[in-house]
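User: structure tokens for this one?
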Amino acid sequence: MRKSVKEGVAAPDFTLKDQHGKKVTLSKLRGKKVILYFYPKDFTPGCTNEACEFRDLHEQLKKLDYVVLAVSADSVESHKKFAAKYKLPFQILSDEDNSVAKAYDSYGEKVFFGHKIAGVKRNTFLIDDSGVVKKAFWKVVPVGHAKKFLRVI
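Assistant:
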């Protein structure tokens, strides 16, 4: 499958609500570097591990001028509970219709416990301060994923 999101190309813009109901627009973050990661579902083991790793590295990433944005199809209310339970200091965006996940090639057919299903794919994008995709990580393994950024950025 050919990817529509490519390194060196402008990241697709979007506006989504975070866990507090606040609208977040990617293009309004110009001047900041963004780690945009897509994950399947709040409160599941892999997604929780990944979120907690980004939480634990949040201060280091912030000092490097990175903003972390997490995206899944869960509701604003689910994200609010997820962020509160795990003390997540970054914004978690609700993409209930999967439109942003689709724009980032992060929704579609995948294999889950040996079965083909449609769902959010675990992908991450580094977006530079001018809004260009610097690096794309496809089919991410959640454990240890966040730590890789300290070597890449």
